[in-house]
Amino acid sequence: MNRISTTFKKFPRTFWVANSMELFERWAWYGLFAVLALYLTQSTDTGALGFTQTQKGSIMGTVTAILYFLPLFTGALADRFGYKKMLIIAFVILSSSYLLMGQVRSYAAVYGAFLLVALGAAIFKPIVSATVAKTTDESTSSIGFGIFYMIVNIGGFVGPIFSSKLRHIYGWDIVFVMAASAILVNILLALIFYKEPGRVKNTDPFWDSLWKSLKHIITALSDMKLTVFLIIMIGFWTMFNQLFYTLPNFIDQWVDTAMIYNWVHGFSPLIAEAVGTKKGIIAPEMMVNLDAGFIILFQIIISSLVMRFKPVNAIITGIMVVSVGIGFAFGTNNGFYVILGIFIFAIGEMASSPKFTEYIGRIAPKNKEALYMGTSFLPVAVGNYLAGIFSGPVYQSMSDKISLLEHFVAKRGLHIPAISEKFTQNDYLKRAAELLHTNQHGLTQMLWNTYHPYRIWVLFSAIGVVTIIALFLYNHFVLGKVKTQSA
After folding, report:
1. Contact in structure between 377 and 71 (CB atoms under 8 Å)
2. CA neighbor of 30 nearest in space, from 243, 225, 226, 294
3. How far apart (Å, rounded) are the C-alpha atoms in residues 48 and 46?
4. What pLDDT sits at residue 369?
5. Per DSSP, what are the bridge partners of residue 334?
């Protein structure tokens, strides 16, 4: 304890300010992102936008891919113009674009506002990471980055809880106000408390710095061992992101969470009210948020269990577990099994994600660690883009309740007005139930038994299986060949 206490005293104030800013930025981002799939697609009479799943997938996939791609270049802005100045610019963009996103309702306007959010986040990301790196040394970096990643998960856990409870009380607008307010706190932190860490000022013209960054990326990707690994890991991130892109919609449309609420209410009405809604159900975002909660509780235990594994072996094992978890989460309409799936998913995530970063650091040549680490965003970016496709048109054709119901209605020859501004998704569901002489639960069960929307689990888990096979081959042929040559 004395050693930890001594280490904590070595961190300068700017280290803690950077971590505080990360907490509020993640609070804002995940507070919105955890409910974004629902906001984009739920019925307009609830205050949501009523977009199709395809439109949702395009917005979330493309914009988030851009967010993870831009830090490869936005770091040059901070080096050129200064960390503090760019932080304030990032926070002004973020706070205003969060507010704007809650005010606009057309597809193009929402897309544009979310792009601005991505730009602000992409400016912020490399600055906060660099600040933590520059305010730690060899004796404090391990604990320092451990604190940083813990803060990421705390922000990612707290944000969705607040947005879930607030939106059910005050409506969807409050989610965007909450996100903007969290960023306003960061503006104050940057203006009053943030001190520019020691850095070598880059006086090169911005475009020269940008070109230099691009050349560095190309240099790193010329290492076939790195490039093949990054391409394979696109599969992991494509599957992984279904937890945020698709599972909230799947739970909202198909899963019975009332059974969970009633079970909790049986031993503690107070806890049931805290985690549930007035309708006596558990909101989808609260279910998905269990992933972050499990990580906070069990990351140290899982990390200690896999620390002796070689990174690639740990990644393979983790992806196996994630594939099983995603199968459980999407393979049933029983809320308890969905929770089990999320728990299994979280275990696999805890085993594989840290090892992904560790492995890239290990294969990097000496003094090129930062260069190689910068490429780790590439599979995340591409994985987000592909996740949007699977969560969009693929989910819409295989599992979207509204699309399946429209097909069912047409097949039965029933006459129901098309969904529009005046005739919402909820109106359509209500009218369909009336014509089919059932209630909403019966309608859901009828569609479930007819179209088997849960079969999408096979597709998502198959992505994981293909990734696992590719990693086995990579481990045997690529790494094995490197070892043979070095011997």
Report:
1. yes
2. 243
3. 6
4. 67
5. 256
Please report which helix (H) or strand (E) contains residue 206, including its range. Answer: helix 206-221
d(CA 69, CA 375): 9
Backbone angles phi, psi at 448, to 5 degrees: -60, -45
Q: Which two tokens stand for residue 486?
A: 């070095």
Q: Judge whether 467 and 235 are in contact, CB under 8 Å.
A: yes
- Helix %, strand %, coil % of the chain (to 5): 80, 0, 20
The reported pLDDT for the residue numbered 200 is: 61
Residues 6+ apart with CB under 8 A from 109: none
Amino acid at 268: S
Mean pLDDT for 436-450 is 97
Task: Give the whole-angstrom CA distance, residue 289 versus residue 272.
Answer: 16
Of 167-171, 214-218, 222-226, 296-300, which gets the smallest average pLDDT? Answer: 214-218
Domains and CATH numbers, the chain: 10-218 (1.20.1250.20), 223-398+452-487 (1.20.1250.20), 403-451 (no CATH)
456 within 8 A of 330, measured Cβ to Cβ? yes
CA distance 5 to 1: 6
pLDDT grade for 484, boundaries at 50, 70 and 90: very low
Q: Higher-confidence residue: 136 or 323? A: 323
Report DSSP state, residue 334: B
